[in-house]
Design a protein that fits this description.
It is a single chain. The protein is α/β, with parallel strands linked by helices. It folds into two domains: 202 residues, D-Maltodextrin-Binding Protein, domain 2, CATH 3.40.190.10; 97 residues, Periplasmic binding protein-like II (D-Maltodextrin-Binding Protein, domain 2), CATH 3.40.190. The chain is 39% helix and 14% strand. It contains 15 helices and ten strands. Helix 6 crosses helix 14 and helix 11 crosses helix 12. The radius of gyration is 30 Å and the shape is globular.
């Protein structure tokens, strides 16, 4: 009897101890909350910033660097919030940027899931700002991109807007000067906007093509007063954008002649530029921007009236019909330099022109070291544009 009672007591103790052990090993619900700047409902980091490139960040586009994450796990993706993007044109509103304005005006960026802010105005530090993520996308020239990369700025052109270098030299038709080839520039006083940038580089290209150096001419910085400087005979000729000044000259009754840089050397002109980190970490955002811009560029080429209307809205200072007609003529000239390269998609940039550009800038000491031309651009996004 005592043995039976002892066994029963020990059995009860075992059951009690088992129950206690079970309760202490149970996992309690966690109260820890994990957040990241790219994944919280209230966060909208600028595309290209370190926070947006963080491995933990999940953007509205559904990007995620963590294998376990899915687009549905992101609050931004579930609510359909558009991705905030800035595009800086690098200059005052002009017909040069008509495709970008048209894409914004017609909602092509919005349809791609983007909330795009187009920033106009001169910005000498634009490429540096793109390289550090302060600006997402910007419009710049190929020669400037090469110079930036030589200085260690990690940027690349992702779409070309001008397929022909639009810089050239203009002079008065009745000046008595004969300028048929670059060699004829010897001994002349030639105006450039500044001693850097596309008008200066364009002059260096003409001089090289004519087997001349800067010692063979006088170079005068005239700012953006090419037409005035030429018509007032402060210079013999001036470097300018051929899509603009010859039209302005004609509209005020000034007859000019020109020498085109593109006839002698194929330098890469204007295009949309992004940082390497944007291209690597947020390729879907780059693709959306290019998709929308390519669509607008094609429409710009086929139906320039709509592109003109979208651009003139950004020029409220133009009230006279004559001024508006001048801008319409400028758009017509601009589109001549933006025609797609045969057998290639709109926005495609020529690899051979990048080699020409890098070699040229090195030869005239604009850059002090060789730059691999293949690091300056990518055609992957225009080739996949839809």
């Amino acid at each position: 009897m005592r043995k039976s009672i002892f066994i029963a007591v020990m059995l009860c103790v075992s059951i009690i101890l088992a129950a206690c052990g079970s309760s202490t090993s149970a996992t309690l619900p966690s109260t820890e909350t994990t957040t990241s700047e790219g994944g919280t409902p209230g966060a909208s980091p600028v595309a290209g910033t370190p926070s947006a490139a963080s491995p933990e960040a999940t953007s509205a586009s559904g990007m995620s660097a963590t294998p376990a994450a899915t687009p549905d796990a992101s609050p931004a993706a579930s609510t359909g919030d558009p991705i905030k993007v800035t595009i800086a044109t690098g200059f005052k509103p002009s017909m040069n940027s008509a495709a970008i304005y048209l894409a914004a005006e017609k909602g092509y960026y919005k349809d791609a899931g983007l909330d795009v802010t187009v920033k106009d105005g001169s910005n000498p530090d634009l490429l540096a700002q793109i390289g550090t993520g302060g600006v997402d996308f910007g419009v710049s020239t190929g020669d400037s991109v090469v110079s930036a990369r030589a200085a260690g700025v990690p940027v690349q052109m992702v779409m070309q807007l001008f397929t022909k270098y639009p810089v050239g030299l203009i002079y008065l038709a009745d000046s008595g000067k004969t300028i048929n080839t670059p060699a004829d520039l010897k001994g002349m006083n030639i105006g450039v906007s500044q001693l850097t940038g596309s008008t200066y580089y364009g002059l260096l290209a003409l001089l090289q093509a004519g087997h001349l150096t800067t010692n063979d001419v006088k170079i005068t910085a005239i700012g953006f007063t090419e037409l005035e400087a030429v018509s007032q005979k402060r210079v013999d000729a001036a470097m300018t954008y051929m899509s603009n000044e010859p039209v302005n000259a004609k509209d005020v009754g000034i007859d000019t002649k020109a020498l085109q840089v593109n006839d002698y050397v194929q330098i890469v002109s204007s295009g949309i530029v992004a940082s390497e980190s944007m291209i690597k970490d947020r390729p879907d955002v780059v693709q959306k921007v290019i998709d929308a811009t390519v669509k607008a560029m094609n429409e710009d080429l086929q139906n320039p009236d709509e592109a003109f209307d979208a651009t003139i809205e950004r020029m409220p200072e133009l009230t006279a019909d004559k001024d508006k007609q001048t801008q319409r003529d400028i758009l017509t000239e601009t589109l001549k330099y933006q025609q797609p390269v045969a057998d290639h998609p709109t926005g495609w940039t020529n690899p051979d022109s990048w080699k020409t550009t890098t070699d040229f800038l090195k030869s005239v000491n604009v850059i002090d070291k060789a730059v691999d031309p293949t690091t300056c651009y990518t055609n992957q996004f225009v080739e996949q544009a839809k």
